[in-house]
Amino acid sequence: MQMSSSTTKKQDFENILRDYDVVLNSQDGKTLNKSLRLLKGGGKLISISGPPDPEFAKEIGAPWFVKLFARMLSAGIRRKAKRRGINFSFLFMKAAGDQLREITRLIDAGNIHPVVDRVFPFESTNEAMAYVETGRAKGKVVVKIK
């Protein structure tokens, strides 16, 4: 589903969208909680911005105290998700050469179309960050090194 920017600025997404199977959250905790309302029972909420869950701590072979810390950090969102019949998990993003090559191939083939809002020279990094913080970007903001 696509919405016009005027719709999304006037209304909160959690009041418009419903019955999705999966939500991938990359925002803050407030947005993570709102995302629960978009999912239907049995849905999956995946966050790449945290909080880490016990399963993630187990996968990386963390010591017991880190596992406990991850359990405590994610307790609130896991409890809310469980009440709604939704599964929550944390996904740690890491660069993988094979995946990056495949993404590059898809972009080169025209299957993926990255949306670039503005490109700033390296010397204007502070200006680029300020622009991102305004929330007006309609795509990715790029800082060009060379």
Highlighted features:
YIM1/Zinc_Alcohol_DH_Fams; 6 helices; alpha/beta; two-stranded parallel sheet; globular; 146 residues; Rossmann fold; 2 domains; single chain; NAD(P)-bd_dom_sf
CATH top level assignment of the largest domain: Alpha Beta
Overall 3D geometry?
globular
In DSSP terms (H or I, runs of 4 or more residues), the helix count works out at 6
The residue ranges in which pLDDT falls below 50 over 5 or more consecutive positions are: 1-8
- The CATH topology of the largest domain turns out to be Rossmann fold
Residue share in helices?
A: 40-55%
Describe the structure.
The chain contains 6 helices and 5 strands. With about 150 residues, it is an alpha/beta fold. The strands form 2 sheets. Strands 1-2-3 form a 3-stranded parallel beta sheet, covered by helices on one side. Strands 4-5 form a two-stranded parallel sheet. β1, α2 (about 30-35) and β2 form a beta-alpha-beta unit. It is globular.
Reconstruct the topology from this structure.
Blueprint: H1 5-10, E1 20-25, H2 29-35, E2 39-47, H3 54-59, H4 64-83, E3 87-90, H5 97-108, E4 116-121, H6 125-134, E5 140-144
Parallel strand pairs: 1-2, 2-3, 4-5
Short structural summary:
By secondary structure, the protein is of the alpha/beta class. It is 42% helix and 21% strand.
